């Protein structure tokens, strides 16, 4: 599979205070019409990536390229054109939908701010978008609290779709939903991808959900990207010890070293690169080598997996550094 | 072996402006020492209300709780007065909630909160209680118990707060722990850790655990028995292995179909249960699940199917699989 990526993130770094590095030199890309699943524990930096891509927070270093255009430091007006093309759906629809606006008002807003449309055009667009997400037009004059969380999430998705974006970021978008509703929303997202060719950046710490929806998987830990592969390659042959640990967690197995990590108080992460850089995962790693504690591992591609499909299986690990 | 917790025909009605509807309808189960029983269901099905009713935390006039029996080690706890009940809660039966952030008091350190529980229920001096508290934190896995005792809830991650909740709930070695969605707000690493702790309690102290969750994977892997709840009723109950390998109720089968396995091949997304859970104020007559059930026929809506023995467990269905 070739073709220019829709979204390319290159060596992106973001810190929130002098000592708190949220994203540490992360690079990945997403091809049009495909789904990248971004996984990792809470606090790994997944949501920070989403906010960075949406240009909701500034980048310290690196680049964000959308359709080949560098949007990293684009000004507000120029960003408006880009913002139509990428949208986001959050975990809690009741928090992301304004309780004081009807569904109609909520859906009109992006059209008003991000495009030039007449009232008649907006009306038609709203009707067709509602149909796409499986809602009837009788929802228009109601308020969010009158709907179930599954329906609220459909409304949030409708709002995200209404400007015809090419990239949809779903940040734990099904985490708060019951299992049967989760399945409905996942099917909806996959159908929309099929019909509209939308690319999806799907953030979740639930590997079972990721397994259903992702074409590729990227694993984050403490702000760094540790592994990136085709979904079949990741689930079939996880390369990074943390990737393997995540699959163990899904089976409710916790390595004692990991248990210790989860019960250590939060501490500030080391600044990107520089002296003293080690493997960020070394202290918890069941397979660590002596050099892991004082040498940052390189990001290497495994020889066989995924090369032929344009997505080599990459891992940041000394174990694979031949 | 006599069960530690026995619940027979528990029903809870909510009373609001003259309307009384059943939030929990005739629920019965028992849990033996050292065992975990899972209560599975989607939001609003009545799982939390069931736990609160067992704890005696639902009071008139807002709620009417009726039961043939709620027994802890053979002793009826359903009609206790205030003082007796306060002695019971935390000491003999404890509850762990979904949102540890809101269950913990933000203005006291973990150490202070856990110590307070010890002082209320055990005959210990402050000095002794502090040692007990530090030991409890160490037991649930905090490597540096002193540091955590000095921490405030907001300084900790969700997983750590939940571990602290478990320490607090179990410091007095209750016979029963009701864990209400203890891992729902947590990521998989913290989830695995919390469930490991519950297993340790069962093994080391013979604690009986009622594990409430909407996550079938959690129940499947961590409970010996399981019950499926829908709109206040138990639709099916059996050993967890049997229930998930061979579900008898169409709702159970539907839920299971929605849960993918993580394997070498990408699974299809199965939208197995159409429609939505009905509002508790507007429940369908007869079997509450009938309108969403592919196997339903008119008899299903006429009268609620009683639980029948089948396949080693019970199922409430006129047309089980």
Identify the overall geometry of chain B: globular
Q: How many E strands of chain B?
A: 13
Distance between the termini of chain A: 27 Å
Which fold name corresponds to the CATH topology of chain B?
Answer: Rossmann fold
CATH architecture call of chain B: 3-Layer(aba) Sandwich
Order of helices and strands of chain B: EEEHEEEHEHHHHHEHEHEEHHHEE
Give the CA-CA distance, first to last residue of chain B.
Answer: 32 Å
Number of strands of chain A: 12
* Largest beta sheet: strand ordering of chain A: 6-7-8-3-9-10-12-11
The amount of beta strand of chain A, in percent, is: 15-25%
Tell me the quaternary state: heterodimer
- Side-by-side strand order of the widest sheet of chain B: 7-8-9-3-10-11-13-12
Rg for CA atoms of chain B: 20 Å
Describe the overall structure.
The complex is a heterodimer of chains A (322) and B (321). Chain A has helices at 46-53, 76-83, 93-96, 103-114, 119-132, 149-161, 179-196, 207-213, 231-236, 241-250, 256-262; strands at 7-15, 21-30, 35-39, 61-66, 69-70, 86-89, 167-171, 199-203, 216-221, 224-230, 299-301, 314-316. Chain A is of the alpha/beta class and 322 residues long. In chain A, the strands form two sheets. An eight-stranded mixed β-sheet of chain A has the order 6-7-8-3-9-10-12-11, with helices on both faces. In chain A, strands 2-1-4-5 form a four-stranded antiparallel β-sheet, covered by helices on one side. Chain B starts with a strand and ends in a 6-residue tail after the last strand. Chain B has an eight-stranded mixed β-sheet with strand order 7-8-9-3-10-11-13-12, with helices on both faces. Chain B is α/β, with parallel strands linked by helices and 321 residues long. In chain B, 48% of the residues are buried. Chain B has helices at 47-54, 82-88, 100-103, 110-121, 126-139, 145-149, 158-170, 188-205, 216-222, 240-245, 250-258, 298-302, and strands at 5-16, 19-31, 36-40, 63-66, 69-72, 75-76, 93-96, 176-180, 208-213, 225-230, 233-239, 308-310, 313-315. At the A-B interface, helix 7, helix 8, helix 9, helix 10 and helix 11 of A face helix 7, helix 8, helix 9 and helix 11 of B.
């Amino acid at each position: 599979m070739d073709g220019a990526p829709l979204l390319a993130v290159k060596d992106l770094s973001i810190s929130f205070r002098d000592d708190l590095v949220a994203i540490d030199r992360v690079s990945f890309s997403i091809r049009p019409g495909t789904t990248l699943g971004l996984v990792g524990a809470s606090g790994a930096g997944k949501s920070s990536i989403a906010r960075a891509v949406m240009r909701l927070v500034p980048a310290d270093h690196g680049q964000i390229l959308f359709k080949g255009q560098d949007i990293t430091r684009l000004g507000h007006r120029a960003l408006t054109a880009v913002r139509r093309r990428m949208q986001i759906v959050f975990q809690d629809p009741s928090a992301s939908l304004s309780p004081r606006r009807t569904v109609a008002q909520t859906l009109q807003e992006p059209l008003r701010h991000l495009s030039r449309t007449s009232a008649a055009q907006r009306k038609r667009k709203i009707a067709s978008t509602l149909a796409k997400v499986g809602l009837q037009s009788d929802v228009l004059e109601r308020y969010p609290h009158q709907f179930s969380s599954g329906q609220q999430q459909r409304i949030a998705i409708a709002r995200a779709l209404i400007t015809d974006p090419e990239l949809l970021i779903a940040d734990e978008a099904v985490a708060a939903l019951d299992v049967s509703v989760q399945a409905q929303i996942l099917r909806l997202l996959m159908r929309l991808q099929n019909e509209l060719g939308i690319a999806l950046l799907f953030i979740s710490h639930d590997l079972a959900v990721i397994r259903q929806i992702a074409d590729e998987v990227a694993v984050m830990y403490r702000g760094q990207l540790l592994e990136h592969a085709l979904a079949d390659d990741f689930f079939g042959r996880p390369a990074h010890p943390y990737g393997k640990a995540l699959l163990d967690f899904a089976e409710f197995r916790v390595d004692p070293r990991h248990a210790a990590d989860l019960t250590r108080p939060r501490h500030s992460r080391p600044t990107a690169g520089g002296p003293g850089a080690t493997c960020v995962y070394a202290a918890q790693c069941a397979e660590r080598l002596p050099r892991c504690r004082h040498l940052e591992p390189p990001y290497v591609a495994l020889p066989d997996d995924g090369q032929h499909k344009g997505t080599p299986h990459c891992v940041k690990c000394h174990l694979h550094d031949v | 072996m006599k069960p530690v917790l026995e619940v027979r025909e528990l029903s809870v009605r909510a009373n609001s402006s003259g309307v009384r509807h059943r939030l929990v309808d005739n629920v019965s189960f028992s849990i033996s020492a050292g065992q975990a029983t899972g209560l599975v269901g989607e939001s609003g099905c009545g799982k939390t209300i069931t736990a609160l009713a067992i704890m005696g935390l639902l009071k008139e006039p807002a709620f009417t709780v009726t039961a043939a029996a709620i027994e802890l080690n053979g002793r009826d706890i359903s009609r206790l007065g205030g003082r007796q009940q306060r002695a019971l809660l935390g000491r003999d039966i404890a509850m762990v909630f979904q949102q540890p952030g809101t269950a913990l008091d933000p203005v006291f350190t973990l150490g202070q909160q856990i110590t307070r529980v010890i002082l209320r229920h055990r005959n210990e001096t402050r000095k002794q209680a502090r040692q007990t508290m530090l030991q409890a934190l160490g037991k649930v896995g905090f490597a540096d118990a002193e540091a955590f005792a000095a921490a405030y809830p907001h300084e900790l991650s969700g997983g750590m707060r939940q571990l602290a909740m478990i320490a607090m709930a179990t410091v007095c070695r209750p016979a029963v722990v009701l864990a209400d969605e203890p891992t729902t707000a947590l990521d998989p690493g913290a989830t695995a850790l919390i469930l490991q702790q519950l297993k340790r309690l069962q093994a080391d102290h013979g604690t009986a655990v009622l594990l409430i969750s909407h996550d079938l994977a959690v129940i499947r892997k961590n409970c010996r028995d399981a019950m499926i709840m829908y709109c206040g009723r138990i639709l099916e109950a059996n050993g967890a292995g049997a229930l998930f390998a061979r579900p008898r109720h169409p709702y159970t089968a539907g839920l299971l179909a929605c849960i993918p396995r993580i394997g070498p091949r990408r699974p299809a997304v199965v939208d197995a249960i159409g429609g939505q859970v009905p509002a508790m104020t507007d429940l369908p007559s007869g079997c509450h699940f009938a309108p969403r059930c592919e196997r339903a026929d008119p008899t299903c809506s006429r009268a609620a199917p009683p639980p029948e023995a089948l396949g080693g467990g019970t199922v409430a269905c006129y047309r089980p699989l």
